[in-house]
Amino acid sequence: MVKIAVARGDLASAVARRLIEALNAELSASYPEEGATHLRLGLDEVAPGRGAFLVATVAGRPAGCGALRRLTVPGLNDAVELKRMFALPALRGQGVGFGILSALEREAAALGARRMVLETGPRQPEALALYRRHGFVEVARFGEYVASPLSLCMRSVWVLSRSPCDAP
Q1: Which residues of 99-120 are buried (b: 16+ CB within 10 A; e: fewer)?
Q2: CA Rg value for the chain
Q3: CA distances, 99 to each of 38, 64, 92, 114 (Å)
């Protein structure tokens, strides 16, 4: 394992742009079908009090990113959605994703969210494994993903005010 630092980042920065461009290229290659990717995340959605954008670094160099945004979807108004999770391929399996996800969980709790939800896809086995290890389970597609056959949605199984170790 490598030593990972995770901190708030600027979604409009050059670092964020490079990480997100790499993520988008990977997703577009994995899901070339029209309308299969959901890449939108606005600056306003990660503004203080509404969400967060985090950057992970290893030895001072960008290693990955992740974001969350408050949801306004009926039935999910107590939730935040995980977005733009990415770890550089060379650093996968070394705790970068887990570090980002753990930090995003703390951000979600600070926002008053009671649960986290996310959308991913069946062609991302590493991401699915990370989310399952972190206590996420599959749920019905929600919001903008309802009509997307390649979307796989998940939610945290614990209430964020409790530790994942306390989950039933």
Answers
A1: bbbebbbebbbebebbbbbbbb
A2: 15
A3: 23, 10, 11, 20
Average predicted confidence (pLDDT) for the chain? 89
Q: To 10 degrees, the CA torsion angle through 20, 21, 25, 27?
A: 20
Structural domain count, the chain: 1
pLDDT above 90 covers a percentage of the chain that reads: 68
> Roughly what angle, to the nearest 10 degrees, separates helices 96-110 and 125-133?
50
Q: Is the pLDDT of residue 54 over 90?
A: yes
- The C-alpha atoms of residue 131 and residue 156 are separated, in whole angstroms, by 9
Instruction: Let me know: does 115 contact 162? Beta carbons within 8 Å.
Output: no
Q: What's the whole-model pTM score?
A: 0.89
Phi and psi dihedrals of 160, rounded to 5?
-65, -20
DSSP 150: T
Domain CATH number, residue 135: 3.40.630.30
φ and ψ at residue 114, rounded to 5 degrees: -100, -15
Band of pLDDT at residue 91, cut at 50, 70 and 90: very high
> The domain containing residue 83 runs over which residues?
4-166
